[in-house]
Amino acid sequence: MTVGVNNADLRQQARELIVRATSIPSLSGQEREVATYLSGWMSAHGFTASIDAAGNAVGERGSGPKTVVLLGHIDTVPGEIPVRVDENDVLHGRGSVDAKGSFCTFVAAVAGLDDATVARARFVCIGATEEEAPSSRGAHHAAHTYQPDAVLIGEPSGWEGLTLGYKGRLVLHASVTKDNFHTAGEGTSAGDDLTESWFRVRAWAQEQSGEGIFGAVQATVQSIESGTDGLTQTARGVFGLRLPPHVSPQQARAELSERLYGLATLDFRGDEVAVRHPRDSVLARVLRVAIRQAGGTPVFKLKTGTSDMNVVAPHWNVPTLAYGPGDSRLDHTPEERLSLSEYDQAVAVLQDALTRLALSLEGTS
């Protein structure tokens, strides 16, 4: 199938793709129905498509010696938003922005590549499962399956935005158990000790922080509870840490374990290392040119959250960026929505960029 960037039929089919994909519920761990739909759409549009062992929807086009992986996620957080396209051509629905919109952008752009481009490179679109869950099952599977030459991560950046990096993450579950005692007596309660643990976590975060929001260690209380059965007091808290590149999860574990020694029982989870890619890679260059050709102004971004970029970065030391239409401030909110005209623009930009990328990669060893 050979189509061009201005092909009206493909543009309409691409819109139907995103509306239908958004209409299919796909909470983390429940992506089978949407993966089946997406793999079917890809099969009908020139891809070799399947559902892999991790439940990912995978489609491949091209036979060239270089491999470009376009990794997006097809699961969503909870929260039902009635799916509709309003009078302003805006798609409302859970996943429209985060991040079915980005993955559908990938699929539609690759479907529109001409024969010369797919002869120069192999394009692998992976609709990953469980990105919104701590497991990141789909991305971990992909990281051990492919060895790409360039990687695009599907996350909303706006059609003019290029995301270079994401902060790391660590989640600390702290608990304190003590014999019950009268509040008029001496000593500290379980709640006191848990509170002191939080104060020490927050102080450590402030000490470790660098410049700007991307350089800061952000510490938040995710939950806290305490109580007694009359004999024993218990207090539990969950503290979330967003880590900049200069603070690894391993460092955070070691230093917080030392600071909270003897105060609380600690359980660390959800390790993700921060990642930041250069802005002058071949991938960044072709996307900048494509955005300018479309009348836009490229904007580089660094995100304080995490994404599948964190998962694959230790395995894929190749040019990598995150790209996708939509406003990331709408992620996980009741107002999640995506302008279909922006979606069209992102598809066109990405198709242009991938065409340029295949040419650029052709001459590399």
From TrEMBL:
Active-site positions on this chain: D75, E131
EC number(s) given by UniProt: 3.5.1.130
Subcellular location: Cytoplasm
GO biological process terms on file: lysine biosynthetic process via aminoadipic acid
NCBIfam families: dapE-lys-deAc, PRK04443.1
A GO term from the CC aspect: cytoplasm
GO MF, any single term: hydrolase activity, acting on carbon-nitrogen (but not peptide) bonds, in linear amides
Entry's cofactor comment: Binds 2 Zn(2+) or Co(2+) ions per subunit.
Function, in words: Catalyzes the release of L-lysine from [LysW]-gamma-L-lysine.
Primary site of residence: cytoplasm
Region forming the signal peptide: none
Residues annotated for Zn(2+) 2 binding in this entry: D98, E132, H332
Gene assigned in the entry: lysK
Cofactor needs: Zn(2+); Co(2+)
Protein family: Belongs to the peptidase M20A family. LysK subfamily.
Keywords: Amino-acid biosynthesis, Cobalt, Cytoplasm, Hydrolase, Lysine biosynthesis, Metal-binding, Zinc
Name of the protein: [LysW]-lysine hydrolase
EC class of the enzyme, as a word: hydrolase
Reaction it catalyzes: [amino-group carrier protein]-C-terminal-gamma-(L-lysyl)-L-glutamate + H2O = [amino-group carrier protein]-C-terminal-L-glutamate + L-lysine
This protein's pathway: Amino-acid biosynthesis; L-lysine biosynthesis via AAA pathway; L-lysine from L-alpha-aminoadipate (Thermus route): step 5/5
UniProt keyword Transmembrane present: no
Positions bound to Zn(2+) 1: H73, D98, E155
